[in-house]
Amino acid sequence: WHPTHPERPGRAKAGPGVGDSRAMQITFKLYASLTEFLPAERRTSNQVTLDVQPGATIAQIIEPFNLPMKMVHLVLINGVYIPPAERATRALLEGDVLAIWPPIAGG
Q1: I need a surface site. Which of 32, 81, 97, 106 has the fewest CB within 10 A?
Q2: How do beta strands 97-101 and 74-77 pair?
Q3: Strands 11-14 and 47-52, bridge-based pairing
Q4: What are the start-end ranges of the E strands in the chain?
């Protein structure tokens, strides 16, 4: 399996336990330049529904997408900021929305 080849449009599987009947669904959103790491057909909407193993962490979910860690700047779960120190251990729950922004320069 590869995240750019979901079984059904708009859906992909990520992390350990792929194909496990206990999988839960989350919404994965990438913003700005990070949308290039989503499957081509999902880039316009900037999101994909993922089937992940219960207890999957942020780090486990983003790993198959090969995001450069220096580009994973702002991470939110359901609109709540997750600090870098918690990203390897913070587990998601059924229905959560994981959103990631790259560093953005401005003036």
Answers
A1: 106
A2: antiparallel
A3: parallel
A4: 11-14, 24-30, 47-52, 74-77, 80-81, 97-101
pTM: 0.79
**From CA 67, how far away is CA 65, in angstroms rounded?**
6
Q: Which of 33, 31, 36, 7 is nearest to 19 (CA)?
A: 7
One-letter amino acid for residue 97 of the chain? V
Q: Do residues 92 and 61 lie in contact, with contact meaning Cβ atoms separated by under 8 Å?
A: yes
Helix (H, G, I), strand (E, B) or coil at 34: helix
Distance CA 1, CA 76 (A): 26
Are the beta carbons of 28 and 61 closer than 8 angstroms? yes
Per the CB < 8 A criterion, the answer to whether 87 and 59 are in contact is yes
